[in-house]
Every structure is written in C-alpha cells, then in structure tokens.
Amino acid sequence: MSSSLVSVITPSYNAEKFISATIESVRTQTYTNWEMIIVDDCSKDTTREILKEYAELDPRIKPIFLEENSGAAVARNTALKAAQGDYVAFLDSDDLWVPHKLEKQLAFMQKNDHAFSFTAYNLMDENGKPLDKVIDVPKQIDYKGLLKNTIIGCLTVMIDTRKVEPLQMPLIRTRQDFALWLKVLREGHIAYGMQEPLANYRIVEGSISSNKLKTAKRNWYVYRKIEKLSLPYASWCFVNYAFYAIKKRVQS
C-alpha cells in the first residue's frame, strides 16, 4: 500500500462535548499519513480553543475558523478546497472511526482501483455507548441505486481526488453530502461498499440528522431541485427511499 496522504474533512459547530473524542479517533489510526482539516463554523462554546490546543499538539490537525456562521456545506467545501490529499475522507465532529479504518479502506481502494468507497458502521448513543446495531451496506451502488436507497454514511466515505474532481457540495442546509454522492455517481462512478463496520455513528437527540421528517423533506428537495427528477420518477425514488429507511431501522 502506498503512503498516500488522506485529507480528513470535518465541519464543527458547538462541538465541545464530542470533538476531542472525534479527533482522538483519527490520531489513533494505524495509518498515519493524514491531515485533518476541521472547519469551525463560528462556534459559541469552547470548540475553537480545543481545536487550537490540538493544532499545537499535532501538526496534522489543521483548523480553519470561519468569520461568519455559514452552515455545514460551506464548512465542508472550505475544507475540501484546502485539502492536499490524494484521498479525502469525511468525519463529522461527533462521530468516531475504529483504529484501522483508514488502513483497511485505503488498501481496499488501492487493491481494486476504486475511486469511491464507503463502509458499514455501528450505532452508538449520545454518550458513546454502543447500541449493538450495525448498518450494513451493499457491495456496490450506482446513481439510480442511491436515489432509491440513501445507504451511504458520510462518516464512512473515502474518495480518490485524482479520479473524482473537483469535489464541492451544493449549498443546502442538510443532505449536501447525499447530493454530492449523487453528483459523483451521476458522472459514471460506482460506490463500492466494505461490509466491515469501520466507524461509529453517534445518535444525538435533537440533531438535524435525527429528525426523520425533515430528512425526508430534504431528500425530496434533492430529487426535485438538485437532481431535477420528474415528479413521477422522484415519487418512485421517494417510495423506495422510505421503504429502505424503514427496513434499515427495523433490521438495525
């Protein structure tokens, strides 16, 4: 396996409760050639102080401080523009990676010459307690498949920037990651799944992602306004999305 630089893309906002654990899950990776670009979206708590301390402790941690609150899409895009890696990987400020995540996923991509990969992941509660639930993933998914089944977890994605560029997310409040994956797959790429859970997703009460109704509405917005699907096709995709979302909740 080559020693390719991996750029970790992390937006943060009022993340003082979780950001240290998130950073430590990257610092303890068995693969060490990474940079972690954390873009803070004008946090009002002590997040910025924590980031400055980590930047002094580890030069691979590179915080960027936005001057005005702009949302996760702007924060992620700012990090993507600053990224120097041959690969980018995404990790939100309350989620965690298992120690061999980068090593295993990078080897998987390089062995198979994949441009886009994602993995299964575990669920944990707000306090980091494992819920003994795994979100399984298919071996691969294409554009039409992802429209019907939003199975790709942002915290598990790794993309080869030499094969897929430029990477920028649409400026919408939520689901900008879903929209980006669709854009990449629409261009003809396939996303390949690793069945091994290599990340831990934190379920935080009251977070944007925890509101299923709002998520559904945002998916519909992506179908109609971003992907510009016809009403009948968007409706068909939405029915399938709802089916798979319910199935995932029941199985997990």
From TrEMBL:
Write down the PANTHER family for this protein, in alphabetical order. Answer: GLYCOSYLTRANSFERASE, UDP-GLCNAC:BETAGAL BETA-1,3-N-ACETYLGLUCOSAMINYLTRANSFERASE-LIKE PROTEIN 1
Q: What is the protein named?
A: Glycosyltransferase family 2 protein
Under the heading CDD domains, the entry gives: Glyco_tranf_GTA_type
Q: Name one Pfam family in it.
A: Glycos_transf_2
What family is it from? Belongs to the glycosyltransferase 2 family.
Q: Which residues form the Glycosyltransferase 2-like domain?
A: 7-124
InterPro entries given for it? Glyco_trans_2-like (IPR001173), Nucleotide-diphossugar_trans (IPR029044)
Q: Which Gene3D superfamilies match?
A: Spore Coat Polysaccharide Biosynthesis Protein SpsA, Chain A
Q: Where are the transmembrane segments?
A: none
Gene Ontology molecular functions:
hexosyltransferase activity
